[in-house]
């Protein structure tokens, strides 16, 4: 009996590709066969693998049904990957450090479509030392002219990273250091606790952002 339908049902929020699930199951069968007795252990293992792989390889696109050309809309829920981020509220000298004036800009993707989210109020789960490729769960996000307005009530940082994106970010920071000689927070200084599968929350909640 195939586990794929059961796994898809339990991990439906991740919109995982069947091919990715099959690869994970093969890995489990070869190296972690003790997990096969419990579907919850299997899904938790696959969720953890998802967090540390590029969403382009793991998931089907979920943003195609949304039109980001309208003046105002609501993105009900989605789990996306942050490819890169910057602080547009500060100068070059300060934008890769933590300051009280920060305004984070996140480049978010479902693997096909890229959209930008801006920090309308300080988001506790994000800092300038995070490794890119981390996954986020969004719920009831206000969209204005194609831009997401993010705050603590509508974004949950799940954790994870993507090795290739980390390498590119490190190269970018090295180049900026050579050019501007600021003192940047190193990647991985900010280690946000990984959210377990059972705590992922995209339930509807009133958005208090104006």
From TrEMBL:
Organism's domain of life?
Eukaryota
InterPro entries assigned: RMI1_N_C_sf, RMI1_OB
An example of a Gene Ontology BP annotation on this entry?
double-strand break repair via homologous recombination
Pull one GO CC term from this UniProt entry: RecQ family helicase-topoisomerase III complex
State what protein this is by name.
RecQ-mediated genome instability protein 1
Gene3D superfamilies, A to Z: RecQ-mediated genome instability protein Rmi1, C-terminal domain
Q: Which family does it belong to?
A: Belongs to the RMI1 family.
Question: By its UniProt entry, which Pfam families does this protein fall under?
Answer: RMI1_N_C (PF08585)
Span of domain RecQ mediated genome instability protein 1 OB-fold: 96-172
Organism in which the protein naturally occurs: Entamoeba histolytica
């Amino acid at each position: 009996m195939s586990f794929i339908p059961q796994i898809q049902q339990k991990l439906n929020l991740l919109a995982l590709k069947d091919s990715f699930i099959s690869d994970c199951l093969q890995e489990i069968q070869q190296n972690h066969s003790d997990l096969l007795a419990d579907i919850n252990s299997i899904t938790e293992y696959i969720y953890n693998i998802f967090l540390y792989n590029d969403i382009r390889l793991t998931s089907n696109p979920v943003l195609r049904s949304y039109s980001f050309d309208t003046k105002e809309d609501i993105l009900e829920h989605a789990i996306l990957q942050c490819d890169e981020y910057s602080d547009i509220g500060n100068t070059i000298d300060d934008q890769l450090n933590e300051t009280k004036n920060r305004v984070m800009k996140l480049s978010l993707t479902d693997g096909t479509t890229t959209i930008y989210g801006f920090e309308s109020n300080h988001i506790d789960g994000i800092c300038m030392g995070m490794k890119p490729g981390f996954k986020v769960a969004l719920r009831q996000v206000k969209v204005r002219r194609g831009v997401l307005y993010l705050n603590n009530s509508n974004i949950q940082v799940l954790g994870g990273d993507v090795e290739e994106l980390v390498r590119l970010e490190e190269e970018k920071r090295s180049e900026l250091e050579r050019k501007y000689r600021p003192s940047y927070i190193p990647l991985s200084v900010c280690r946000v606790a990984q959210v377990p599968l059972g705590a992922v929350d995209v339930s509807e909640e009133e958005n208090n952002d104006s």
